[in-house]
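INFO  loader      accepted 1 record
INFO  loader      residues=274
INFO  predictor   begin
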Amino acid sequence: MVLIIIVPLIIGLVMSFFNYNLLTLHRGIPFIGFSNYSKALGDENFWMAFWNTLWWTAANVAGQVALGLSIALLLNQPVKGVGIYKALILIPWAVPSAVAALSWMWLLHPEFGLVNDIAVRFGLVSEPVAWLGRPFTAQVWVVIARVWKEFPLSALIFHAALQTIPKDLYEAAEVDGAGVWKRFWNITIPYLKASIVVAITLITIWTFNSFNMIWVMTKGGPGGATEILATSIYKTAFQRYNFGFASSQSILMVIFLSVIIIFYLYKVEGKKID
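INFO  predictor   done
INFO  writer      dumping tokens
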């Protein structure tokens, strides 16, 4: 744990206080204090990536929780072959992120993609669209791709929680005249609250730090529309070779994520106490 998490974090923190740029390495690596942090906080591109990261994370949390819960509820029904269905929904999760991203790029290809073929056939568009070449559609499709890839996690979490709900509660509620929606909101959701908190926390952490799918599909484009902190920091470090500046951005990213998680958990625990 120390070697994997703490040591790299300390190294990154130390590097953030130096002008560690491979392009100017011959001039030395001078200590510059908080200059990298000041530069990052005053950088429009950094804040654009930050806000993009927020909507990217929020959209993924909403999509994965909604789809995962829907699938979990379907798997909880008394149907034959539920074990096979459980195995099938794990397929997206088992596919490597880079492979999944390439598959979605093929589906969205302007000339040969299945999405354009279906859209044109059904009259949804008059001609093939470069889905990943337009800011809004690129944002939509990278979220859809990520939700498809990761929803099995929340589905399994919710399905496991659904197994713990006593069946007699539903039977008693049905006898009392409670409809499907009333049973869902008054029985299912309260029992799933802890699982929902776990799912939202995990999805938030992993999505906030995610890199692979956006990098493969759009590399942060077009025009920075899908540029998130992870891709922005990668470009700073490995395309501009400014490791000191990239380290300061990474530390700020850790701080932002920690604040978001702490605030969320505080609000959840506060509601429990109330």
